[in-house]
Amino acid sequence: AAKADGRGVHRFFREEMLLGAQGRRQLEDDLRQALAKGELHLAYQPVVSTRDEKIKGFEALVRWTHPVRGAVSPAEFVPVAEECGLIESIGEWVLRTACMEAASWPGEVRVAVNVSPIQFANPALPALVTSALAKAGLPPARLELEITESVFLHETASSERMFRNLKGIGVRLALDDFGTGYSSLGYLKTAPFDKIKIDQSFVRGAAIAGNRNAAIIKAIVTLADTLGMETTAEGVEIQDEIALVRELGCSHIQGYVYGRPMPADAAAALLGQGGGQAEASGFKTSR
Ligand code: C2E
Ligand code: MG
Ligand code: MG
Ligand code: MG
Predict the structure, then answer these.
(1) Is the model's pLDDT at 190 over the cut of 50?
(2) N or C: which end of the chain has fewer CB within 10 A?
(3) Does ligand 1 lie within 6 Å of residue 176's CB atom?
C-alpha cells in the first residue's frame, strides 16, 4: 500500500540512493530489533489554542535512537517501516504508549497520534484503538488520530467503514499535512474530520509581505470553518507567524515557537505547572 503513496515512494527512493540497497537492508534489520531493544520512544509537541495561548494537547512523535547512528528521523525510518511491514507493530507500540503516557495528564488535554495509511487500511485498527484506550484508561475523546490525505487515493467502501468505526469509538480525527498530497477535495464532503492540520510548507514565509501562503491559509481556514472543523497551523516558528495565523482564524498552533517535541516527563511537568492548562508563554523562550 505504501507504494501507492507518492510521497512515500519519493522518500523511499531518496533513502535508497543515500544508503544503497545494502544500507537499507541494514536499516530494516536494525529497525526490526529496535522495538525489542527499547530504542524507540515518543516525543511530545504542544498544541496551543490561539484564543487563550493554553496547551490543549500534544502530538506524539516517534523517536529512534540507533545504537551506532544515533537519532534517526522518523521522516527517514517511517517510510522504511511502511515498505517492510514493520509499521504495524511500531504503530501499535506508538498508540499504546501514547495512550498510557497521556492518561496521567490532567483534565481535557489531548494526545494526537499519527496513523500510517497502512494501519488505516487494516480492519483491525478500531479494535486496537479500543484496546489501547481501555488498557490506559484514557477517555476516547482525549485521543486524536492524525491521518494524511494519501488514504483517499484509493477511497473505497472499506475506508468509509473505517471512518465510521473510528468515530463510533469516540476518538477525534485530524487530517494531517493538508494540501500537500495529490488527492481531490471531494473527500471532505463525507470524511468526518474534527480538525485540519495546515502543513508547515504553507506557514513557511506566510508572514512575509506579499507572500501567497497567507491567502492559501485563509482559504483553508474558511473551508474548515464552513465544514465545522478546527484548524492547526503546523511549523509555526516565529512571533509574526503566531500573529498572522491567529488573524487568519486558525484555532490552534503547533511549532517550535511554543515548544519542540519533548520527552514525556517534560510534557507532564509543563502541564503540572499550570494546573493542567499551562500558559504556553511560560516556555516560549526555553525552546
Ligand atoms: P507530522 O505528523 O506532520 O509531524 C510534524 C513534524 O514537524 C514533526 O517532525 C515535528 O517535529 C516537525 N515540526 C514541528 N514544529 C516545527 C517547526 O516549527 N519547524 C519545523 N521545521 N518543524 C517542525 P518529525 O517528528 O521529524 O516527524 C516527521 C514526520 O514523521 C511526521 O510529520 C509524521 O508524518 C511522521 N511520524 C512521526 N511520528 C510518527 C508515528 O508515530 N507514526 C507514523 N506513522 N508517522 C510518524
Ligand atoms: Mg502529524
Ligand atoms: Mg503534519
Ligand atoms: Mg508534516
Answers:
(1) yes
(2) C
(3) yes
Quick one: which atom of ligand 1 is closest to the CA of 94?
41
* CB of 71 sitting under 6 A from ligand 1: no
75 lines ligand 1 (CB under 6 A): yes
Instruction: Decide whether any atom of ligand 1 lies within 6 Å of the 116 Cβ.
Output: yes
The answer to whether 132 and 99 are in contact (CB under 8 A) is: yes
CA 216 distance to own-chain centroid: 21
C-alpha pair distances (Å), 207 with each of 179, 214, 247, 287 = 19, 7, 11, 21
- What is residue 137's three-state secondary structure? coil
Report phi then psi at 266, rounded to 5. -70, -40
Q: Which amino acid is at 185?
A: L
- Looking at all shown ligands, the one closest to residue 147's CA atom is 2
Nearest CA to ligand 1 atom 29: 75
Q: Map residue 262 onto helix, strand or coil.
A: strand
State the pLDDT confidence band at 16, using cuts at 50, 70 and 90.
low
- State the DSSP string of 161-212: HHHHHHHHHT-EEEEEEETSSS--GGGGGT---SEEEEPHHHHTTTTSTT-T
Q: How confident is the model at residue 88 (pLDDT cuts 50, 70, 90)?
A: very high
The number of the ligand nearest the C-alpha atom of 144 reads 2
Pick the range with the lowest mean pLDDT from 12-21, 161-170, 269-278. Answer: 12-21
Confidence of residue 14 (pLDDT cuts 50, 70, 90): low
Residues 195-211 have a mean pLDDT of 94
Residue 45 Cβ < 6 Å to ligand 1: yes
> ipTM of this model?
0.98
Ligand 1 atom 20: residue of nearest CA: 235
C-alpha cell at 41: 520512544
Q: Quick check: CB of 251 below 6 Å from ligand 1?
A: no
Give ion ligand 3 contacts, CB < 5 A: 176-177, 234
